[in-house]
Design a protein that fits this description.
Blueprint: H1 5-18, H2 77-80, H3 91-96, E1 138-147, H4 166-174, E2 178-181, H5 196-206, E3 212-215, E4 227-230, E5 234-240, E6 250-255, E7 263-269, H6 277-291, E8 297-303, H7 312-315, E9 345-349, H8 351-354, E10 357-358, E11 360-362, E12 365-367, E13 371-373, E14 401-410
Parallel strand pairs: 1-2, 7-8
Antiparallel strand pairs: 1-14, 2-4, 3-4, 5-6, 6-7, 8-9, 10-14, 11-12, 13-14
């Protein structure tokens, strides 16, 4: 990563040329209770870390918010999407950055197995950054992660084994700069309440003490809030209402990334009910249209609970967001659920930010459209220090991490 000067210079030229809880069963688990997916709190739930849940899903704590037919129908997807009309703004990026990395190129110190975590701000030099020379703007890589990586039966990041939280290890190994996090709860003392000090501790472990964060309301396990963690300052933040869910909202933050254009980041967790998802997505699209300036960078990501890449809820967000590009693992699989058969988790930029996409580079591996990280598949695992081979299937692990990389110009 750090030190790929040849890669960096190409990026610089390119950018210049472009002008720019209730106790629950997680997402792959059978519904052992009522419609809200909650499980008994009487100790009758036994976690068997050796047997993964089956492919069906109950979304925990999600109450029935009414008959979708009572609401206004969302737009017809066919009226919102014309695949032939969209140009992939980043294909030029992929074509120009075609030269493979030299295996002898030194790597970022933070990716070597003996590196300490978290890296400080000085050592976290950007992977795309060449020598500044005489000054002026330089390219800065921004890695964005969709992160629903809670494990255990209580939807927290503290884990359920003596080895601790697999989700935290995965985040540390992949080193995202901005984390669009779901189920933003941490309970290291086991009292089932989440204090600001505990949440701050989680942020420090995932990103470092210099990082900022915002989190939706919720101090008990009846809420599974969304949130955003950022290496750059958060200028403003808030929530937009998801009309079909009561235990979380759309969480947004305006981030002061390098350069003159701010990034609007939105963390979402759409309903598990496929009849509700289109209405939630339409509400999100309305909020984005009303609030996000047309000349700002925008990225929306998280857990969409979508069964198909372009189902109605996703199409409600097009053409406002680039919804056609799906990251893959090293075997080309786009699935992000535990059983790897559904594309639940996404990182979706607007066209302005999509034009800044570059391949995700980890060690000597490149992923032009982004990476779905599965610890059972990724090779070599030493590229992501601290991650264990079975972390992606820790007991009741929710999903796979999804990362995409972008480059912006700034001082």
């Amino acid at each position: 990563m750090l030190g790929h000067r040849r890669y960096a210079l190409i990026l610089a030229l390119l950018v210049s040329a472009c002008g720019e809880p209730v106790a629950h069963v997680p997402d792959d688990s059978p519904d052992a209770a009522g419609e809200d997916g909650s499980l008994p709190l009487d100790g009758s739930l036994v976690i068997d870390a050796t047997t993964p849940p089956d492919a069906s899903r109950a979304d925990a704590g999600e109450p029935d918010s009414g008959n979708p037919g009572d609401a206004s129908a969302p737009p017809d997807a066919s009226e919102l999407f014309d695949a032939s009309s969209r140009d992939d703004a980043a294909q030029g990026v992929d074509a120009l950055i075609a030269e493979p990395l030299d295996a002898a190129t030194p790597q970022d110190a933070a990716t070597s197995p003996d590196a300490s975590w978290p890296p400080d701000a000085a050592s976290r030099a950007d992977a795309a950054q060449p020598d500044a020379g005489g000054g002026g703007d330089i390219p800065t890589r921004i890695r964005i992660m969709a992160c629903n990586l809670t494990s255990g039966n209580l939807q927290t990041y503290d884990g359920v084994t003596s080895q601790g939280s697999a989700g935290i290890r995965i985040v540390q190994g992949l080193q995202p700069d901005i984390i669009l996090i779901q189920e933003f709860n941490y309970d290291p003392d086991g009292d089932r309440t989440f204090t600001s000090e505990e949440i701050r501790s989680l942020v420090d472990q995932m990103c470092g003490t210099e990082c900022s964060y915002v989190r939706g309301p919720g101090s008990t396990n009846s809420m599974i809030p969304n949130g955003i963690i950022s290496r750059w300052p958060i200028l403003s933040s808030g929530q937009w209402d998801d009309p079909k869910i009561t235990n979380r909202e759309f969480e947004y933050a305006v981030i002061d990334i390098p350069g003159p254009v701010d990034l609007w980041a939105v963390s979402i967790h759409l309903p598990n009910d496929e009849n509700k998802r289109p209405f939630s997505a339409t509400a999100l699209a309305t909020a984005l249209t009303a609030n996000v300036p047309s000349d700002a960078y925008l990225v929306v990501g998280g857990d969409l609970n979508t069964l198909l890449p372009l189902e109605a809820a996703v199409l409600s967000l097009d053409p406002m967001l680039e919804v056609n590009i799906l990251p893959v693992d090293q075997r080309g699989n786009t699935g992000t659920t535990r059983n790897r058969n559904n594309p639940y988790d996404r990182v979706m930029p607007n066209d302005l930010f999509e034009a800044r996409r570059v391949p995700v580079t980890i060690g000597n591996n490149q992923f032009p459209k982004g990476l779905v990280f599965d610890s059972r598949i990724y090779d070599p695992l030493s590229d992501v220090p601290g991650v264990l081979e079975d972390d992606s299937i820790q007991a009741y692990m929710q999903h796979m991490a999804v990362i995409r990389d972008f480059v912006v110009l700034g001082p």
